[in-house]
Amino acid sequence: MTSAGATSPRPLVILISGTGSNMQAIVRAAQQRRWRERYRAEVAAVISNRPDAKGLAWAAEQGVPTAVVDHQAYPSREAFDEALAQAIARFDPHGRGLVILAGFMRILTPGFVQHHEGRIVNIHPSLLPAFPGLHTHRRAIEAGCRFAGATVHLVTAELDHGPILEQAVVPILPGDTPETLAARVLTQEHLIYPRAIERWLRDAGA
Questions:
Q1: Which CATH number belongs to the domain containing residue 108 in this structure?
Q2: Which of 83, 107, 148, 168 has the fewest CB atoms within 10 Å distance of its CB?
Q3: Which family does the entry's similarity section mention (predicted)?
C-alpha cells in the first residue's frame, strides 16, 4: 500500500528573515515551471523568524501559507531551533521535503542540521569556498578579485561548507562598490537558486 506521504506533493518550506527576494524567485519558478505537475513538489510554507518580515505578506498574497517563529521568544538557539523544526514538520509531516534558506539570518544548530540532513539548501553571495561568512562583496573587492558570484549549497554543520549544487560568476567591474556588486550578484541568485532546487527535485525523484 502506498503511504500518504509518498503520494502527496513533496513540500518545499522556505525560511526568510526579510523581504525574501530569493523566496519570491522560487515561488514564481514553482508556478511558471509547474513543479507540482512535473515533480510533485510545491511551496508548502514560508516561515520567518521575524514577525515584521515583508516577505510574509507577499507569500500570503500568492496563496502560500505562512508562519512566524520569533527567535526573540526563546531562551537559546537550541530552543528556537526545536520550535522551528516543529513548525516545519507541520507542513512536512513525513520528512520528505526540502528546507530552503532564503535570506534567513540565523545560524542553525548542528542538531537542527542533522535532523534535516541532505534536505537543507542555502544560497551564499560568494564563489565558495572563497569568502564564507559575512561582508563577502567588500572582502572580494578589497582582495582585488576579478570575479565574485553566488553559490547554492547543501547545508552542513560547518558554516558555508556544504556540497555545492550551483554557482554563478559575476565580474567585478572597475569602480564597483559592495552595493553595486551585491545588486548584480542578487540578479544571478534569482536565476540559480530555482534552477538548483529544480535539479534537486529531479534527482530526488520527486
A1: 3.40.50.170
A2: 107
A3: Belongs to the GART family.
> What's the confidence (pLDDT) of residue 6?
62
Rounded CA-CA distance 124/192 in Å is 11
CA gyration radius for the chain? Answer: 17
pLDDT, residue 2, reads: 44
Count of structural domains within the chain:
1
Indicate whether 165 belongs to any domain: yes
The answer to whether 49 is a known ligand-binding residue is no
- What is the C-alpha to C-alpha distance for residues 23 and 101, in angstroms, rounded to an integer? 9
Q: Are the C-beta atoms of residues 60 and 29 closer than 8 Å to each other?
A: no
The answer, yes or no, to whether residue 75 has pLDDT greater than 50, is yes
Give the structural domain span for 176.
10-204
Distance of CA 70 to the CA centre of its chain: 18
Alpha-carbon gap, residue 85 to 62, rounded angstroms: 24
76 appears as a binding residue in the annotation: no
Which pLDDT score is estimated for 33?
97
Average pLDDT over residues 68-82: 98
Query: Is 4 part of any domain?
Result: no
Q: Could you give the CA distance from residue 12 to residue 98 in angstroms, rounded to a whole number?
A: 5
Task: Say how far apart CA 21 and CA 139 lie, in whole Å.
Answer: 23
Known binding residue 126? Answer is no
In-domain check, residue 5: no
Identify the active-site residue in 71, 115, 116, 124. Answer: 124
Question: Does 124 participate in catalysis according to the annotation?
Answer: yes
